């Protein structure tokens, strides 16, 4: 596991270099804040490396908040890492600003030759387009403008790149049903076109569909995401499911995701989990959230998993 004595650790994402080492990027904030609820607006992006994703060596932070005034001059949040066609690493990440008290989220990027030293690109690249997505206002019934957690991947057909992100739609539905999977597309990872969401609000839905990921397990494409019980629709909470990480089987992601089919990966406290392959075997790794009513804030050891045809389960 990755546990820091002086910092909480939560959302994470991963990349494997040419030597087979696993690089973990994660949100971190000082435990000197004392109240864990303050950590989000103090977050930076930490970095560690491991041969087996169990024993980690801490490296310098990958990114911290920018000098102001800037779109990311308050905190840097969750993202993903890909390798571009030129062989350089690209990190897409979330930023919030002091000017908006962290209430409006945007997505930008940074570039690296070695996964260690990162340089910001001009940004932001993606924002909540009001044609498709809810923007922040005090009467919206929600506490922020969701445009975060970018998951970037190459189009399986080879036609450019796609981005999934956490978003919400405006409408008459209850606030805890308006979470959707945002979608953007790019040919070069530099210019992005924001598109309609790939899911629709549902009575068995969620107020926010966080930390999305598309990954194949045992030949089946899966959408992985998370949502806390207090932010799920009433009908979803009435199911009494255990676990805050959800999985939806996917045949063709461009046809959209049926969020009503989401089923949880059962775990007592795991949150913001990611699927990552170790020696060809899918593993799940995330952070320990609330245990006994207390926030833990450390990454788990990887959990080997399999797809049983209906659910993602421990192997």
Automatic annotation (TrEMBL):
Alphabetic keyword roster: Glycosidase, Hydrolase
GO molecular function terms attached to this record: hydrolase activity, acting on glycosyl bonds
InterPro entries: GH32_Enzymes (IPR051214), Glyco_hydro_32_N (IPR013148), Glyco_hydro_beta-prop_sf (IPR023296)
Presence of the UniProt keyword Zinc-finger in the record: no
Pfam families listed in its UniProt record: Glyco_hydro_32N
Keyword Hydrolase recorded: yes
Glycosyl hydrolase family 32 N-terminal domain span: 19-227
Protein family membership: Belongs to the glycosyl hydrolase 32 family.
Annotated protein name in UniProt: Glycosyl hydrolase family 32
Source organism of the structure: Glycomyces buryatensis
């Amino acid at each position: 596991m990755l546990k820091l004595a002086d910092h909480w650790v939560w959302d994470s994402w991963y990349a494997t270099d040419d030597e087979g080492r696993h690089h973990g990027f994660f949100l971190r904030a000082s435990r000197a804040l004392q109240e864990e609820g303050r950590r989000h607006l103090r977050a930076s992006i930490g970095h560690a490396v491991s041969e087996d994703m169990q024993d980690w060596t801490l490296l310098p932070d990958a990114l911290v908040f920018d000098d102001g005034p800037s779109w990311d001059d308050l905190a840097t949040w969750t993202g993903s890492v890909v390798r571009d066609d030129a062989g350089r690493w690209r990190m897409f990440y979330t930023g919030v600003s002091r000017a908006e008290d962290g209430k409006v989220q945007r997505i930008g990027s940074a570039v690296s030759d070695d996964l260690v030293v990162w340089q910001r690109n001009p940004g932001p690249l993606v924002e909540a387009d009001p044609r498709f997505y809810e923007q922040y206002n005090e009467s919206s019934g929600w506490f922020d403008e969701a445009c975060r957690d970018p998951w970037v991947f190459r189009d399986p057909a080879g036609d450019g790149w796609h981005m999934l992100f956490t978003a919400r739609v405006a409408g008459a539905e209850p606030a805890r049903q308006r979470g959707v999977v945002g979608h953007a597309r790019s040919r070069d990872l530099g210019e992005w076109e924001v598109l309609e969401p790939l899911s629709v609000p549902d009575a068995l839905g969620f107020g926010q569909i966080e930390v999305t990921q598309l990954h194949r397990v045992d030949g089946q494409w899966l959408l992985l995401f998370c949502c806390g019980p207090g932010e799920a629709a009433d009908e979803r909470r009435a199911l009494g499911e255990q676990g805050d990480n959800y999985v939806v089987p996917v045949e063709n992601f461009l046809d959209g995701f049926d969020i009503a089919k989401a089923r949880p990966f059962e775990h007592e406290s795991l949150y913001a989990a990611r699927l990552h392959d170790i020696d060809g075997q899918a593993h799940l790794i995330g952070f320990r959230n609330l245990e006994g009513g207390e926030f833990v804030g450390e990454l788990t050891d990887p959990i080997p998993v399999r797809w049983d045809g209906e659910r993602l389960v421990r192997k």
